Amino acid sequence: MDAYLDACEEPDYARIVIQEAQAVLGEPRYREIEETYPTALLIATLRALKRDGELHADDVDLLSRMIDAMICKIGLLLPHADDSRKLRRNGQKIVAAVLETFRQKV
Hints:
By secondary structure, this protein is mainly α. It has six helices and no strands. The protein has helices spanning 2-8, 11-25, 27-36, 38-51, 60-77, 84-101. Helix 2 (11-25) packs across helix 3 (27-36) and helix 4 packs across helix 5. The protein is flat and about 40 Å long. The model has no long low-confidence stretch (mean pLDDT 93).
């Protein structure tokens, strides 16, 4: 998440990848790339946590996509934030809190 949010704070990346990519590539190709790379990585990570008994979620794929949406929203808001460090810190806390609710308690 940190690497992605770092990139989102770079004006060129924010403009090309966040603002223009979907329009330039078209919806199907944009979603294909998103599913192949960042979403697939998040799904694999959460599946591994579930396999190792650290995560309790009935639908890991849906949880992954919802967490991805939260992270992407933070990235969309960063370039326009009055205090990007505060937004980033608060956003990361929220994502962590949501994931914590699915953490397997021992």
